[in-house]
Amino acid sequence: xxxxxxxxxxxxxxxxxxxxxxxxxxxxxxxxxxxxxxxxxxxxxxxxxxxxxxxxxxxxxxxxxxxxxxxxxxxxxxxxxxxxxxxxxxxxxxxxxxxxxxxxxxxxxxxxxxxxxxx
Length: 119
Prior knowledge:
Elements: E1 8-14, E2 19-22, E3 28-41, E4 47-59, H1 60-69, E5 75-88, E6 94-107, H2 113-118
Parallel strand pairs: 4-6
Antiparallel strand pairs: 1-3, 1-5, 2-3, 3-4, 5-6
């Protein structure tokens, strides 16, 4: 029997600064929102770009690096896996969502001038 594959590779821009928190055990966790485009053919036959947004979760040292070096608008590459979750909202309705748990993150923009001077 063939094994399932759960791998995602994305390149896009951050829609907000990383949001850092810690687990009960003190491990760092950062969440990002990534925007990326895909091309689709419209009903009139013309090609158009469509924006897509997905939440990204980073753990450990990668989370700390993201918090320290990334900001809204920065271009990044993500290599990770999809993770689905279900929860009950405050109004009692059942909600579900999908995110990417990043295994690797690639900083694709040069660091801002203030980071280059500090290095």
